[in-house]
């Protein structure tokens, strides 16, 4: 079946909850030349009506049964955004129906299902499958990766990252989702949200060879570990520590920045979603900060990669294998905490790591992508200048 070469990809949405409303639809509506939503499925008619109301997609395209959506001839590909325990089953149905698939992460509920996802991909070599990991496509992370690839800090020897945040159920937010409170998947919040951080670590530091972890369960609103401290060893020789807390009580505001220490400099990723910053500090005391405003956290670029893969056979960065690798780091960390032992990650050796995505047929990292990017070359004066050198404005 697949997408025809004429016109935008005819997309079916399976699941129209918060992830579609807050993350995917804002990007989809900016890509009318690449996608048109022709059908959408959700078990909740009320949720379907809500999607129709803000998207303008007619309720004639709605069905509560995703099998009916998959039977439609005017659906070339699907975006699967359902609870984690249902991801594998819906992906399996979609591929069997001949659809290309963009599926939310992670690849299943545990290691067994992750391996089943890999086997599922092998059974459908003629279909495009992208597992949504927006951190692989985020502008600030890709820029930091390009700096590392260019040798901006020399040889990386240490990664340090601490993240602290307040997590309790709030109406209208992802924390309000009932299936997240009592998750039917191992690791709870760390297999759901934590895999994003693992993706960033792997993207910037390379493959992980060993982990040693400890956890705490001190948030009564979630049935999962709330705290994780994780020591890591990387294939390139660097070491690192990642410490995270999803706190039940409010915590003081913290920078939550990631620091990468090299033999010739230090790279710091910091800032809220509205203003991401990548600061390069050199041994001579000079520094530069690249500022990213109005970027969409990677969903726009992720959709571009998916459409280019479907239309033009471009490789995807968010492969099943990459998502499984992120999962395995979390799962081995949980194993380590439970067994009080260092756990190897032999499965990731020799995989080549995460490739750096660039827009198709583009010379720069950001050609055609939304957002404002500037370089502050005088930190004390706070003067922003157009971003130059390794960063290209669209």
From TrEMBL:
It comes from the Bacteria. Residues 9-126 form the Gfo/Idh/MocA-like oxidoreductase N-terminal domain. This is Gfo/Idh/MocA family oxidoreductase. The lineage of its organism: Bacteria, Bacillati, Actinomycetota, Actinomycetes, Pseudonocardiales. It holds the Pfam family GFO_IDH_MocA. Residues 141-267 form the GFO/IDH/MocA-like oxidoreductase domain.
């Amino acid at each position: 079946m697949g997408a025809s070469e004429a016109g935008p990809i005819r997309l079916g949405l399976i699941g129209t909850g918060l992830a579609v409303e807050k993350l995917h639809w804002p990007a989809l509506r900016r890509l009318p030349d690449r996608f048109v939503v022709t059908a959408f499925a959700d078990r909740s008619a009320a949720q379907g009506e809500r999607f129709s109301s803000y998207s303008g997609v007619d309720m004639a395209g709605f069905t509560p049964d995703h099998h009916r959506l998959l039977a439609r001839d005017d659906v070339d590909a699907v975006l699967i955004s359902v609870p984690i325990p249902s991801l594998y089953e819906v992906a399996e149905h979609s591929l069997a129906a001949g659809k290309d698939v963009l599926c939310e992460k992670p690849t299943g509920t545990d290691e067994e299902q992750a391996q089943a996802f890999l086997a599922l991909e092998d059974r459908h070599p003629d279909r495009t499958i992208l597992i949504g990991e927006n951190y692989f496509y985020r502008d600030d992370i890709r820029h930091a990766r390009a700096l590392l690839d260019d040798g901006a800090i020399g040889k990386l020897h240490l990664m340090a990252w601490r993240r602290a945040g307040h997590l309790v159920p709030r109406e209208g937010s992802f924390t309000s989702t009932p299936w997240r409170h009592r998750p039917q998947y191992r690791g709870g919040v760390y297999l759901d949200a934590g895999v994003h951080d693992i993706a960033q670590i792997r993207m910037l530091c390379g493959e992980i060879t060993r982990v040693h972890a400890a956890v705490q369960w001190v948030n009564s609103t979630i049935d999962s570990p709330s705290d994780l401290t994780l020591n890591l060893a990387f294939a390139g020789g660097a070491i690192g520590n990642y410490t995270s807390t999803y706190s039940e009580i409010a915590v003081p505001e913290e920078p939550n920045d990631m620091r990468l220490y090299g033999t010739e400099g230090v790279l710091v990723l910091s800032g809220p979603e509205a203003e991401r910053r990548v600061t390069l500090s050199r041994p001579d005391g000079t520094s530069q900060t690249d500022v990213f405003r109005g970027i969409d956290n990677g969903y726009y670029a992720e959709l571009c990669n998916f459409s280019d893969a479907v239309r033009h056979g471009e490789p995807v960065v968010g492969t099943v294998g990459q998502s499984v690798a992120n999962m395995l780091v979390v799962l081995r960390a949980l194993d380590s905490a439970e067994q009080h032992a260092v756990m190897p990650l032999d499965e990731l050796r020799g995989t080549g790591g995460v490739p750096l995505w660039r827009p198709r047929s583009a010379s720069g990292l950001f050609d055609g992508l939304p957002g404002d990017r500037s370089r502050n070359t005088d930190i004390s004066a706070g003067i922003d200048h157009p971003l130059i050198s390794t960063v290209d404005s669209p």
